[in-house]
Amino acid sequence: MALTLSTLLQADNGAGDWSIAVKSGGHGYPGSNNVVRGVTIDLGKLNTTTYDAATNIAGVGTGGRWEYVYADLEKHGVTAVGGRDGDVGVGGFLLGGGTSFFAGQRGFGCDSVVNYEVVLTNGSVVNANASSHSDLWKALKGGGSNFGIVTRFDLEALPTRDLYYDNRVVPLKNSETVISTVVDFANHDESEADNALVALYTYDAKYGNETVIVLIYANVEGDAKAGTSYEKLQTVPALTNKTKMITMAEAAAGSKLEGASR
């Protein structure tokens, strides 16, 4: 990667005369991981996941997808604060902040990063952490790929666990109930930190070419008793409803959207 970047910067008039785009998983909106006049660096092959039991650190390649990261870590009895959808790329998620099922307990995904392996624009490779290049370590927590190309993230690992996972689709006419639930959910204090709620409005031909509301409620400690806010949504007649105890890898694999869908 260092050779790639230094070569591109020296080509013709260098990247001052054109642009370099960086792609991890490519989960963003169409075209956001590419560039019209320049070169796209696809990091998809940097997808190795390791675990060091002595330090409890997971080393995750920036091109990994969370579905496979979780599966690799579960072999060691641990997991990590990562994406909810299986095809989300590691790099874009963690460099953008990263909202996960663990947000109530752990904050953003980037809050779990203890070290970044980074290729700087001069081609040098550094490790950015609390004691070395600490300004870069802070800047990369939500700073995107503006400060270099991250090739590996070292994350604090968590003991693996099953999620209580409730996924339901409700008709659009229940919008007022959904919105009031989201507001009430956000008003709770840290006593509800084990709970996570995703609510999205989507158009899906499977439901008669109508806009529907997809709801995902998860408890990261596997507590099957729904949080007080979510209880009223459980009384709304659902078009579909699946409730189960599943691993992070299973949840990520089951939440992927089909290609070319919006």
Question: Briefly, what is this?
Answer:
With 262 residues, this protein is of the alpha+beta class. The protein has helices spanning 2-10, 66-74, 90-95, 103-106, 134-139, 175-186, 248-254, and strands at 19-23, 38-42, 49-52, 57-61, 78-79, 113-119, 125-129, 149-156, 158-159, 162-171, 195-204, 210-219, 240-247. Helices cover 20% and strands 31% of the residues.
Describe the secondary structure blueprint for this structure.
Elements: H1 2-10, E1 19-23, E2 38-42, E3 49-52, E4 57-61, H2 66-74, E5 78-79, H3 90-95, H4 103-106, E6 113-119, E7 125-129, H5 134-139, E8 149-156, E9 158-159, E10 162-171, H6 175-186, E11 195-204, E12 210-219, E13 240-247, H7 248-254
Parallel strand pairs: 1-2
Antiparallel strand pairs: 3-4, 4-8, 5-9, 6-7, 6-8, 10-12, 10-13, 11-12
Features of the shown structure:
7 helices
